[in-house]
Amino acid sequence: MTPGPEALSCYTANLAVYLASTEPDVLERIAGSVRLAVRTDLGDDLLAFSHHRTPLDGGRLEYRGAGDAATALDAVAAEIEQAGRCLVVANTGYLGWSTAGLEGQAPHLLLVEDLRGDEWHVVDRFTALLPSGGEQQPFTGWISSATLARAMTPIVPLPAEQRLRNELAFGFPRPLPRDGDYQWLERTERLEPEARLEGQWLVETDAALELLGEFWAGIDRSPERVRLLDDMWAAAQHHVFRYDRLLATNGEHPALDDARRAWRDLPMALRFAVDSAGRGRHRPTLVAGTFAALRRCERDAASLLEEGEPAWNDPSRTRSGISL
Amino acid sequence: MDAVATAVKRLVVRESRLSIDPQTVADDELLNGSLLHVTSVGFLGMLVQLEDELGVTLPDDLFAGRTFNTVGDLIDVVASAQ
């Protein structure tokens, strides 16, 4: 079965729904955009991740902020009037359909589609198991202004890794409003800007995975690295989505199936390694083996997609979007 | 039933929030099927608990090319670590 937006991450799931109203094949474009790029010059054991090789929004969405909920909701209403819908930056700790709780607060793009009196029609297609063992379920329905304002409660202070995720949500950096603001995204009419990544980045998947293998092998020495587990989960989620769509569209192939499985198993292996390190059982071999297997699978899949076996070089398939 | 199978079945029943006798769970019961409902997060928690309870260290190639579909799959990997 071809996966839908619910198979994407907490940023891209509802962005995909937002874009689909004017771009019916947006899921194919998102699948084709998936990559893993890692910024390495931030220091403090911090890395940034870019999951898309082209700006998912075409460079046309800009963050906006307001210091109070009433001003923010007025602006969201104006954006719905202008653009027909609006993505707001929600806080998972305040979503009624998530069990994240205040301990699990994280930014989350929520789609608001309509306003009727004091009620807002919201769409949240994202679904996931949470590290706490709870779940975030999809939700579509009407909520009050008070509930929407509560869902948009700013995270203060915003952790550095969450700020980076917001900045790079569409694959390339976007300026953010000040911390503590209620935030949403507005559509602009300006031309697509040049897509550039500032700083030092590893943009080749194999090089990025090599670095990440070394990074996670050191979890026993730097336990604070656990804060980047969600980035690994997102990378895995996006790559599984990409391979799922390739396989669903073009038929089974062992190399792509192996790559899909390797990405699918990555978050679980890393979580187990992190949990083990926290209990004094360092597992560098597990981490090294996991990344070695993933790199091997990625290389095989890339060879297939770039060079192609005859069945994968069929021009009609290329037209349908498998040429990435 | 040996200690590994007993511990695994007790944990999968608890993780699935069931009130049944763990001994009635078959080895070929799916971890996520009509009876049991073990999530990936719950599965990881069980691995940690099994290491602690049974005093074993699960192998570092635990996830390499291995699929955990049934209760028996989990019993096998824990038993092999003893």
What tags apply to this protein structure?
heterodimer, A: 324 residues, alpha+beta, three-stranded antiparallel β-sheet, 10 helices, 11 strands, globular, disordered C terminus, B: 82 residues, mainly alpha, 3 helices
In short:
The complex is a heterodimer of chains A (324) and B (82). By secondary structure, chain A is an alpha+beta fold. Chain A contains ten helices and eleven strands.
Structural summary, described in words:
The complex is a heterodimer of chains A (about 325) and B (about 80). With about 325 residues, chain A is α+β, with helices and mostly antiparallel strands. Chain A has 10 helices and 11 strands. Chain A has helices at about 10-20, 25-35, 70-85, 145-150, 160-165, 205-215, 230-250, 255-280, 285-305, 315-320, and strands spanning about 35-40, 50, 60-65, 85-90, 105-115, 120-125, 130, 135, 140-145, 180-185, 200. In chain A, the strands form 3 sheets. A 6-stranded antiparallel beta sheet of chain A has the order 3-10-4-5-6-9, with helices on both faces. With about 80 residues, chain B is mostly helical. In chain B, about 45% of the residues lie in helices and about 0% in strands. Chain B contains 3 helices and no strands. In chain B, helix 1 (about 5-15) runs antiparallel to helix 2 (about 40-55) and helix 1 (about 5-15) crosses helix 3 (about 70-80). The longest helix of chain B has 15 residues, at about 40-55. Chain B is globular. The model of chain B has no long low-confidence stretch (mean pLDDT about 90). The interface between A and B is medium-sized, with 20 and 17 residues.
